[in-house]
């Protein structure tokens, strides 16, 4: 279950970041599941914007089932 949730989470995070900054490319998404809730994740992303010559790190949390 955690492997599938990780894949879905990575896709959702990447899509959300592309919506915020379409010029940036997501290079990596590091994720850690919360021990008590495997559908909630802490994450750090690495993005590159080659046109601007910059890199960006973002951190946040994601719930795959926020209504639970």
Compressed to H and E, one letter per element, the order equals HEEE
Largest sheet: 3 strands, antiparallel
Low-confidence stretches: none
Question: What is the number of strand segments?
Answer: 3
* Number of self-contained structural domains: 1
The portion of residues assigned to helices is 25-40%
Query: Which descriptor suits the 3D outline?
Result: elongated
Structural class: alpha+beta
Strand-residue fraction? over 45%
Ends apart, CA distance between termini = 17 Å
Mean pLDDT: 94
Number of helices: 1
Instruction: Enumerate the strands of the largest sheet in spatial order, edge to edge or round the barrel.
Output: 1-2-3
Q: Give the assembly state of these chains.
A: single chain
